[in-house]
Write a structure and sequence with these properties.
The protein is built from 19 helices and 14 strands. By secondary structure, the chain is of the alpha/beta class. It folds into four domains: about 120 residues, Rossmann fold, CATH 3.40.50.2300; about 170 residues, Rossmann fold; about 80 residues, Helicase, Ruva Protein, domain 3 (Orthogonal Bundle), CATH 1.10.8.60; about 55 residues. The strands form four sheets. The chain has a five-stranded parallel β-sheet, sandwiched between helices. Helix 4 links the parallel strand 4 and strand 5. The longest helix has 19 residues. It starts with 10 loop residues before the first strand and ends in an 18-residue tail after the last helix.
């Protein structure tokens, strides 16, 4: 048996429009212990890819509609790093050189030598990223998914976890960035050391600085004792900086210095301490835009964003919603109502078809509400509908409320000044540059508030 993910039989997707050769090769691979899925065209192969994640693709080069190289390029777009071996009866040195330069793992000529084929497959599987590792799935046990998109992200996360490079996790709020950061820590050589997390947008500047870097006794009013700070607390392990995009600029400078010098000096102290910390940061903001607007330092951005992993919103992984809902209801009911067994089919359909602007975090809230209010073992559709409506009317987060206020305020002063940015900035107590940044952040065009641009009132 050939090992693949999690030490199980490797799964090979075999693609050829010659059905007799497809059957023959499939039998040969299965006799070697591989699990084989076959496809008679590139399009059919892509359908299989959406349903499962093979360890390797073995494809003929010459096929109608989509040839082997076109299939390879589409696979690279959808599943970066997926090893592909191409077979052809029309093998030539130029074809082989071109294919391997583009990233094809191996290029074999038909009729394929049995030993040469198995040797190429074995070599490709050695280099295939696994999302499992020697300890099985323990590192990713908190991430519930059957989504091919999430599986690809987990494969990349597992590869990156082995090194000490800084990782920036992006994606909407509530999509599970801290869970992924913790999973990467568990998959890393630092797993037996601390994983320390902090939300950089939840604390005022001085308190955030003290939490990160520590302070000496008497460093400021209220500092009645020494505090080591999270960099020192995470020494040897991983420090997760959530919502890094909300960190004030003065602190960004200090953070950059700590990362460059690999040592930290607590507030009010004259002594610096060496640190050995792996940094994973996360944000829901567009840091490229923030950087160009001067709200985020370019040098810090490039130091944190060595590898970028982007988590999808929950609506883009709808196949995970029933799975997540069942898992969550089992956890919540075990604590509060053991008689609750799950959701009715109609309730699950409603969950799966909802938009989930709050992503996984919102799903957790809905499940908790449903378990709290149900009086039956199977949660009905009506209760899910009620919980979703309650979520829509719930108080927004502080960041959402602040953004809403800012936008409303900017619209008001632009209406008052009829789109005159100089006057509007003066009313707001901001300089013109800062005011333009605020307008850009909220996608507001002052020109649309000028009298000529305003719709005429009906008389």
């Amino acid at each position: 048996m050939q090992p693949g993910k999690s030490g199980t039989t490797a799964h090979i997707l075999l693609v050829d429009d010659d059905t007799s050769l497809l059957k023959l090769l499939g039998m040969r691979l299965e006799s070697r212990g591989f699990r084989v899925t076959t496809a008679e065209s590139g399009r059919e192969a892509l359908t299989h890819i959406e349903e499962t994640s093979p360890d390797l693709v073995l494809s003929d080069l010459r096929m109608d509609e989509m040839d082997g190289l076109a299939l390879f390029h589409e696979l690279q777009r959808r599943m970066p790093g997926m090893p592909v071996i191409i077979l052809t009866a029309h093998g030539s040195i130029p074809d082989a050189v071109s294919a391997t330069r583009q990233g094809v793992f191996s290029f074999l000529t038909k009729p394929v030598d049995r030993d040469e084929l198995f040797e190429a497959i074995d070599e490709a599987l050695k280099q295939t990223p696994t999302t499992r590792g020697e300890g099985g799935e323990a590192w990713r046990s908190q991430i519930i998914t059957r989504s091919p998109q999430m599986e690809r992200i987990l494969e990349q996360a597992y590869m990156v976890a082995a090194s000490d490079v800084s990782v920036l996790l992006t994606g909407p709020s509530g999509s599970g960035k801290e869970l992924l950061a913790n999973a990467m820590h568990q998959a890393s050589p630092r797993a037996d050391k601390p994983f320390v997390a902090i939300n950089c947008g939840a604390l005022p500047e001085q308190l955030l600085e003290s939490e990160l870097f520590g302070h000496a006794r008497g460093a400021f009013t209220g500092a009645v004792s020494q505090h080591e700070g999270l960099f020192l607390a995470a020494d040897g392990g991983t420090l997760f900086l959530d919502e890094i995009g909300d960190m004030p600029l003065p602190l960004q400078v200090k953070l950059l210095r700590v990362l460059q010098e690999r040592q930290v000096r607590p507030l009010g102290s004259t002594k610096s301490f060496p640190i050995d910390v792996r940094i994973i940061s996360a944000t829901h903001r567009d840091l490229d835009r923030a950087m160009h607007e001067g709200d985020f330092r370019e040098d810090l951005y490039y130091r944190l964003n060595v590898v970028n992993l982007k988590l999808p919103p929950l609506r883009d992984r709808a196949e995970d919603i029933p799975l997540l809902a069942k898992h969550m209801v089992a956890q919540v009911s075990a604590r509060h109502k053991p008689f609750v067994k799950g959701f009715s089919p109609e309730a699950l359909n409603l969950l799966a078809s909802s938009g989930w602007p709050g992503n996984v975090r919102q799903l957790v809230n809905v499940v908790e509400q449903c378990v709290a209010l149900t009086s039956t073992p199977m949660i009905p559709e009506a209760l899910v509908s009620q919980a979703l409506a309650a979520e829509e009317n719930a108080l927004p987060s502080f960041s959402e409320a602040r953004a809403g206020f800012e936008r409303g305020y900017l619209i008001k002063v632009l209406k008052i000044t009829e789109g005159n940015v100089t006057q509007a900035a003066r009313i707001a107590g901001r300089n013109r540059t800062d005011f333009y940044k605020l307008l850009a952040r909220h996608d507001l065009d002052p020109g649309s508030f000028k009298p000529s641009a305003m719709p005429e009132q009906a008389g």
